[in-house]
Each structure stands twice: as C-alpha cells, then as structure tokens.
Specification:
The protein is of the alpha+beta class. The protein is built from two helices and six strands.
C-alpha cells in the first residue's frame, strides 16, 4: 500500500488497485465490448480501492478500461468517482 501512496504523491493523483485479481479478471472479461474504446464502468462493490497521496484508501466505484488492438486491455484500473 505504501508503494501506491508513493506513486500517488509522485503523479499527483490517486492510484487504483484491485482487491482480488482473480475476480477482477472475471469482471474484465465480462465487461469487454468490441470497439467500445476507453470508458469508465461501474465495478462490483469491494472489487477495487483507491489509494491517496497520504496513504488513506477509499472504495472504488468504477474502473477505467482502455482496450488494446489485440482484444485485451491496455490498462484497466479502479477509480474513485462514479462511472459516467
């Protein structure tokens, strides 16, 4: 957790983390939409956390999904705010 707080301080923004990588992988498979592009989606309660610069955490309510061209995700991480 300290490592994410350090990264949050360096980047100047909170850092998301999955609380269960296996469940996150299942969720990400179910959230895949061909051609959808980058988007924010709601995640199940408790699946993600956001770590702030001071080391405090909050429950993530959404995730930012950025697909790659090969049918996988380039990146996908929890975010604090609601999905749009």
């Amino acid at each position: 957790m300290a490592q994410l707080a350090d990264r949050a301080r360096k980047k100047g923004e909170p850092q998301g983390r999955w609380t269960d990588n296996d469940k996150a992988a299942e969720f990400l498979k179910s959230a895949w939409v061909e051609g959808a592009g980058a988007r924010s989606v709601r995640i199940p309660e408790g699946l993600g956390q956001v770590v702030f610069e001071d080391g405090t955490t909050a429950v993530a309510r959404a995730a930012l999904l950025v697909p790659s061209k090969n049918g996988l995700y380039k990146t996908a991480y929890p975010v604090f705010g609601p999905a749009s």
